Amino acid sequence: MLWAWRIETIRLANLGYLGHMWELFAMWAWIGVFLHASFALTLTPEVAPSAAKLVTFATIGIGALGCLAGGVFADRLGRTTVTMAAMVVSGACAATVGLLYGGSPVLLSVVCLVWGIAIVADSAQFSASVVELSKPELVGTMLTLQTALGFTLTLVTIHLMPLWVEWMGWRYAFMPLAVGPFLGVWAMARLRAHPDSLRLANGRR
């Protein structure tokens, strides 16, 4: 376990992953509740529940395109490039989506779809980075540790969301999730500047 923090490049890749996970599952867990509450203010009672379910499904499901695009572009442009770009977009969505609460259902839906793509476009790149940066005999351990830390962290934000909704309302409740991706951008920028980052994606850091 200590190797994950003693080796700077792996530590930075893990911090990027933790920033990603701070946001991801809390968004997936609560976006449907948020959309239902917002659409109830702007659509008829007959339409709002179905519309919220449909947009929730699309927001999560469209992440498959984000994963595919993330993998393709990471191999061509670099892992840190893709992860930083994806986290800037997803962090911006987390910071602003609540401001659309009770507003245009179409605009809100578009922002959610963009968020759904960006929030997972970087996901596989963190594990790929750990594989490329680790010694061969440590790869399995490093991946297991990364996954365990990330999924444990998700429990925190999933359970904090209802408290944020109570304290700040839906307009601001998603904003704290933006802290994760912006921490992740910082970590991946530091990783990009490290000489060992040339080991990523055959030199496409």
Description:
Helices cover 80% and strands 0% of the residues. The model has no long low-confidence stretch (mean pLDDT 91). It has one domain: Up-down Bundle (Growth Hormone, Chain: A). It starts with a helix and ends in a 12-residue tail after the last helix. The protein is an all-alpha fold and 205 residues long. It has helices at 3-6, 8-42, 48-61, 63-77, 79-96, 105-121, 123-133, 139-168, 170-173, 179-193. Helix 4 (63-77) crosses helix 6 and helix 5 (79-96) packs antiparallel against helix 7. The longest helix has 35 residues, at 8-42.
Q: State the total count of DSSP E strands.
A: 0
Helicity, in percent?
Answer: over 70%
Give me the Rg, rounded.
18 Å
Relative strand content: under 5%
Sheet bearing the most strands, described?
none
